[in-house]
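Renewal narrative, Specific Aim 1. Our central claim is that a sequence can be written position by position from structural information alone. The example that follows is taken directly from our test logs and has not been curated for this report. It begins with the structure tokens describing the chain, in the order in which they were read.
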């Protein structure tokens, strides 16, 4: 089935508000070169969200997202960010369960699931990240590890994004490919995305509507062959999203549905 590809930039803990606004502006200037039918989003760090969302608000082709949220709607959680605040700012997406957060903050699948459910209930689309470590891949456990993460990290009664209001996006990001320059082979990505789709099919009726992004050292040079794969519906892009030219080049490489 045809799914609109999503190219999403994860700016991580880079850039201050001024530089983030300038980068957003540069991306917006290049948007006319990106075919219609490719959805785009950027996820700046929390202190940069206001500046970026103000910059992109009128361009409905570029949406904003956050890199994390808390599972509670509000309360005594110093330093955390509520989905209500993100929604009020104008975020469309929130990344949850990124491997850097799973590692740095010991986030479990249950924590990620709770965050994704709260985001979804608030009208945001969670981008739920899953992915195996190198040791797990070398032990032949990659598909089992990722299947368990998908089952444990997605909210109950989940639907693909774009259906039933707000659903979920899944990002497969092998930990060993993030920020390392090592990209998973198209054959490995293809096999894993098919396996994730099969796992989703066991969880919901409309698994074919869920967008599955690949993330891990996506660059203009490797984007086209990865994005051409049947079950790859876009990319979550870290390093290469910090330059407008490379981010736009990746978006231009996406297959379109129309
Ligand atoms: C990421 O952190 O989501 C990511 C995919 O990073 P990079 O593209 O730099 O590997």
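The sequence written for that structure reads:
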């Amino acid at each position: 089935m045809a799914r609109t590809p999503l190219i999403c930039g994860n700016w991580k803990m880079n850039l201050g508000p001024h530089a983030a606004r300038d980068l957003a502006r540069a991306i917006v200037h290049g948007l006319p070169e990106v075919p219609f039918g490719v959805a785009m989003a950027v996820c700046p760090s929390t202190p940069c969200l206001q500046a970026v969302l103000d910059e992109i608000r009128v361009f409905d082709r570029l949406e904003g997202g956050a890199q994390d949220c808390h599972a509670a709607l509000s309360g005594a959680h110093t330093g955390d960010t509520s989905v209500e605040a993100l929604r009020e700012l104008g975020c469309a997406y929130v990344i949850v369960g990124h491997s850097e957060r799973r590692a740095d903050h010991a986030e479990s699948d249950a924590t990620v699931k709770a965050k994704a459910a709260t985001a979804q209930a608030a009208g945001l689309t969670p981008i739920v990240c899953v992915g195996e470590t190198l040791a797990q891949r070398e032990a032949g456990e990659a598909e089992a590890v990722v299947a368990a993460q998908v089952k444990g990290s997605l909210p109950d009664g989940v639907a693909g994004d774009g259906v039933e209001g707000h659903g979920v996006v899944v990002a497969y990001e092998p930990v060993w490919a993030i920020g390392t320059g090592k990209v998973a082979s198209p054959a490995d990505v293809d096999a894993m995305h098919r396996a994730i789709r099969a796992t989703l099919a066991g969880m919901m009726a409309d698994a074919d509507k869920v967008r599955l992004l690949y993330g891990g050292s996506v660059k203009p040079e490797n984007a086209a062959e990865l994005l051409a794969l049947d079950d790859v519906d876009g990319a979550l892009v870290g390093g290469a999203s910090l330059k407008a030219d490379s981010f736009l080049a990746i978006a231009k490489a996406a297959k379109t549905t129309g």
